[in-house]
Amino acid sequence: MTNIPVTTWSLEQTAPTDRLPAAVPEGEVRIVRSEVPSPEFSRFLYTSVGGDIRWTDRLGWTYARWQEHLGRPGVETWVAHDRGTPAGYVELDPQDDGVVEIVYFGLLPAFRGRRIGGHLLSYGAARAWDLADRWPGLARTKRVWLHTCSLDGEHAMDNYLRRGFKLFDTKVEEEAELAAADPWPGAYRA
């Protein structure tokens, strides 16, 4: 197996005023919280968004592991729908001391390039900042952070910067080169 260098960038917002909204895309795009923890739906989003950009860390999760994760207080999944069809999602995960991580964010390949991503990221960051309003007992959000890497979409870093995230760490590590995990042969090829 071949190793390749992968650069990981960590970015943050340290105040709600750091968030820079994006234009609302044209058409019937709605963002809705998936309030019922659903391992099936969350795994669908994870594999559909991350398959072609090599998201692999959750592929081995059992149903019980998904359920445990999604049932934790403050873990939220916000889903963008284009005319009723899931187009992408953002997953929030509260951590200690008022820190919220945007653990996953992205669009299904068919919805990329339609200006949905900037809107979804801005909306997701706003929901990270007001997370404690929906979850009594959670600390008020003091910091929102995320990471992206050189395997992610070509516009990912620009989108994060345009939404007001600031770079705070960069790492380069060798990782095994993995093939994209298509949900079926040829799924990501036009």
From TrEMBL:
Q: Which CDD domains match?
A: NAT_SF (cd04301)
Q: Which PROSITE patterns match?
A: GNAT
What domain of life does the native source organism fall in? Answer: Bacteria
Annotated GO molecular function terms are: acyltransferase activity, transferring groups other than amino-acyl groups
**Alphabetical list of Pfam families matching this protein:** Acetyltransf_1
Q: Please give the InterPro entries that the UniProt record associates with this protein.
A: Acyl_CoA_acyltransferase, GNAT_dom
Occurrences of domain N-acetyltransferase (ranges):
29-185
Protein name as catalogued = GNAT family N-acetyltransferase
What is the native source organism of this protein?
Answer: Streptomyces guryensis
